[in-house]
Model the fold of this input.
Amino acid sequence: MPSTSPFGRTLCAMVTPFTSEGGLDLDGAQRLADHLVTHGGCDGLVLSGTTGESPTTSDVEKTALIRAVVEAVGDRARITAGIGSADTRHTATLARAAETAGAHGVLVVTPYYSKPPQEDIAEHFRTVADASGLPVMLYDIPGRTGTRIEPETMLRLAEHPRIAGVKDCAYDLLGSSHVIAQTDLAYYSGCEELNLPLRAVGGTGYISTVANVAGSLLAAVLDTFDRGANAEATALHQRALPLVREMMAAGLPGTVTAKALLGTLGLPAGRVRPPLRAADPARTKALMAAYEAATA
Done:
């Protein structure tokens, strides 16, 4: 089912491919982006998010990545650029750079570490939304930032004409349902185990690390649910869960597990940048077993 959201519906939080020396691999990024859109069930890509190792890429690299991926996929997918930082001025600068580079939207995480109060958080998002003409997706992930975007703050922010979506990693289905029911914000599950539950209460889609390797399966869950085959959708959702667990909840960051699988599958990924380290052979073998079971 096509999405009317400016961000798409089935989005991959794409890894950022690096060379063996650790540099940005733009050719690899283009090949991976094309693969995810052509064969991976993705109608949107999120660049330079957590999975894209944004803490270790420079502003210049982020902009170059947007340009390369936009060139590779054209109008076949929506490109959302992760631009969040703990500094409002820096985030606004990145928003303008993303717009100039050709992104279709921006993903803005809650300012982290400083733990600002709710009205300061709201003003941060409004300032960034005013900095460019791009639609803004709020990224609510208190487990990493230390601060929640409270549902009442979401309701106020939904009044801004360019704040159009939410990546939801708050693990609060009641709060999310409250906001979905009262706004037009496009809600995206940022936690694969909640893709189907959030869709069932009015969510738009997902932004997934697992989609780097199993996007078609995750898209099939939503497609099946949307055509009314609820039992089949549940079965597909359950089929994906062991892979989700192995990639996202077994002790290693999703960036590491996604790159281990992509490399084994012969797709562009490359190394991770420190402080992250590559998965060891035993863990990579377990990841492949989960992948093969899910996609057989």
In short: The chain has twelve helices and eight strands. The domain at 10-233 is CATH 3.20.20.70 (TIM Barrel). Residues 69 and 273 are 20 Å apart (CA to CA).
